[in-house]
Specification:
The chain is of the alpha+beta class. The chain folds into two domains: about 170 residues, no CATH class; about 140 residues, 2-Layer Sandwich (Alpha-Beta Plaits), CATH 3.30.70.270. About 60% of the residues lie in helices and about 10% in strands. It has a five-stranded mixed sheet, with helices on both faces. The radius of gyration is 25 Å and the shape is elongated. It starts with a helix and ends with a helix.
């Protein structure tokens, strides 16, 4: 589950950057056509490179999250670095003003929280930009070389800050390892991914609300992850969700009960859990989350039991959850 959360984070970051990349490419074309843009431009070749880059960005946006491993993400940034290197080369080389497009790429790579992805992005940027400058450096004078190496130094320093930020995010503690799902999309994507595998096994969503009294939420999530499954903090106080695969009703109740026991051991009061099982309680990921939420609400409406399954709701509530 932890790997799938990492894939989802990588996919989200790269999709956002891909949308930004398309916007930057449009702005770049407008810039090179402006009268104030002085370097010579090879427009036809520039158009072809921009078209290839925008097409690649569109493909990345549409790819499923399961493909966005660390290596795939590093390769995506290498692709963008090559595209931007060609854009720089065909829009003026060492005099091109479009080298600033590398900075959003470096900043985006830091958001993955992986120093490996950041290293791959920085290495690709420096190598490709140096190749884009090479013809001008070989033919130009010392002033041109000084300006080119100054830009390389600035990119290197920016990349160094990116690597430091990524390393700090990856190694600065376990707090950063937990995903906070403000709008439920991460949990929805995880459930959708489990359902889309086509395996004939039951999938359960367990929602846990520790209630009041838990002072150290990070310790709670640590223990839940070590003993039960990867928790996803939902951004609603200390409420978190878990996705369990290959489970039956008894094992779901056991997992939810153990999560409540962990919360109670840390001082939680009025802790409750609700769960729903696919395909018994719902046929889609959205309906499964809704059913689990309905079960959690039902758990708070009654003193007992502390764990409520969607399949045990009264008929009218069960239909509302579906």
């Amino acid at each position: 589950m932890e790997d799938r959360i990492s894939y989802w984070r990588n996919a989200r970051t790269l999709r956002v950057f891909s949308l930004l990349f398309v916007g930057l490419m449009i702005a770049s074309l407008l810039l090179v056509h402006a009268p104030s843009y002085e370097p010579a431009v090879s427009f036809i070749l520039l158009y072809l490179v921009v078209a290839a880059g925008v097409t690649g960005a569109g493909v990345l946006i549409l790819l499923p999250a399961e493909l966005f491993t660390g290596g795939f993400s590093a390769g995506a940034y290498a692709f963008y670095a090559v595209v931007l290197g060609l854009v720089v080369f065909f829009s003026g080389g060492g005099s091109s003003e479009l080298y600033v497009l590398y900075f959003p790429l470096l900043l985006s790579s830091a958001l993955h929280g992986s120093w490996r992805v950041g290293t791959a992005a920085l290495g690709s940027v420096l190598l490709v930009y140096l190749l884009a400058l090479a013809p001008g450096l070989l033919a130009g004078g010392p002033n041109g070389a000084a300006g080119a190496f100054f830009r390389l130094a600035v990119l290197g320093l920016a990349g160094g800050f990116v690597l430091a930020a990524a390393r700090g995010s990856a190694g600065g503690g376990r707090v950063e390892e937990y995903a906070t799902d403000e709008d439920g999309t991460m949990l929805l994507d995880l459930v959708s991914g489990e359902i889309s595998t086509g395996r004939r096994e039951q999938i359960s969503v367990v929602l846990v609300d520790p209630g009041r009294g838990v002072g150290n939420v990070d310790l709670l999530l640590d223990r839940v992850r070590d003993r039960i499954a990867e928790p996803i903090l939902l951004g609603e106080g200390a409420v978190f969700g878990m996705v369990l695969s290959g489970v039956d009703e008894r094992s779901v109740e056991s997992a939810a009960g153990r999560a409540l026991a962990v919360a109670n051991s840390l001082g939680a009061r009025t802790s409750r859990a609700g769960a729903a099982i696919y395909p018994r309680d719902a046929r889609t990921a959205g309906d499964l989350l809704a059913a689990a939420g309905q079960a959690l609400e039902a758990a708070f409406e009654h003193d007992t039991p502390n764990v409520v399954l969607a399949g045990h709701l009264p008929e009218n509530q069960y239909r509302a959850a579906r």
